[in-house]
Amino acid sequence: MSYGGPQWPQEPHQPDGSPGHDPYGGQQYGTGQQGGSQGAPYGQSQSQGQPGYGYPQGQPGYGYPQTHGQGQPAYGYPPAQQHAPGQQPAFGGHDDGTPDWSALAEASEARQRRKRWLVAGGGVLATAAIATLVAVAVVSTNEDSPARAGGATGSSATTVPGGAELPTGGTGPQPSFSSVAPPPPPNPMDFISTAAKDKAPLTAEGLFPGKKLTFGDRVYTKGATSSTTNCASAGKGGLGPVLENHGCTRVIRATYTRDGVAITVGVALFADQGTALKAKEGARGGVAPLAGSGVGDFCRATVCLRRSNALGRYAYFTQAGFTSGKKVTQSDTAVFKTSDDLASFTFNQIYARGRAQASAAATAPADGQ
Q: How far apart are CA 196 and CA 349, in angstroms?
């Protein structure tokens, strides 16, 4: 029987069964009888048959599993176990005490596979159980719903936990909803399209605030401003009579400069949107350039860029050119960019008036409240 430990060496023999080379360097141990020769190998008997001090013949050995008596092992060693041909020794090892690592690895892998299958199977069973419980709860809820219970018993109340009942009939107070839709928010154009609703204060500083105008990455310096009710004086080249003929009540002007280009913006007020549009379409000439506050005369006896537009009851006009008196051509992109920027700024300022008045009207309390 093997315990997986080292095996004691057996006595070396030659193939013919005779003792072989001594593994301990050739020195032999043992003492012969008197008159006998020394050096009997491994305790073999001398002439009178007495054993030497090596391996006693027929006696229990000191460490080597020999039997004596009724076949009992000597000094605690178990009897040698015989294996049938081809049979593996016990405890998964070999006769030389080496464990069968391949068999151990296969057994461990089999245990791991069984564990994984058990975990996966448990998860599937848990999911199925939860789904079953949910389905049962849904069915139970549908069967015990207040609608079915009331229909079957004719009751007009719904039972809630604690024994209380909620009335389901029409005897209790019911929410009420107005059938009148709330009014839409005011339109800013409504306030800047007619003088009857456009009541907010209007000044040159309010329409063109500050000392500079930043538009994108371009900064314009504000020059002189003007506000007059003499609309004809604010026009040039035929624009004055057009403003008066359409009932202009006021003209506000402001001048801006940047990199040798100057522009004057004029905003004319009319009674309503219709007359302002007509004045814009019939415009001839342009707004008179406004000098002062560091800006000299420009656009006089030379070619400048003139434009006009209208928004609500406001018509606005621009005239841009070089401060040096140079004529403006189609290739002078700086003049066109300046005209575009100031026209967009004026449009936004006029529309902001309508938006502010619409917001104030939406938050104002209703009459009588």
A: 20
80 is written with which tokens? 């040698």
The CA distance from 28 to 46, in Å, is 14
pTM (predicted TM-score)? 0.53
DSSP SS3 for 215 = strand
Phi, psi of 112 (to 5 degrees): -60, -40
> Which sign does the torsion angle of CA 152, 156, 161, 163 carry?
negative
The model's pLDDT over 244-292, given as tens digits with 9 standing for 90+, comes to 999 999 999 999 999 999 999 999 999 999 999 999 999 999 999 999 9
- Nearest-10 Cα torsion for 102, 108, 110, 116: -150
> Are 222 and 204 a contacting pair, CB within 8 Å?
no
Q: How far apart (Å, rounded) are the C-alpha atoms in residues 42 and 28?
A: 7
pLDDT at 149 > cutoff 60? no
- The DSSP bridge pattern shows strands 218-228 and 67-68 to be unpaired
Q: Which helix (H) or strand (E) holds 265?
A: strand 261-269
Tokens matching residue 340: 């575009």
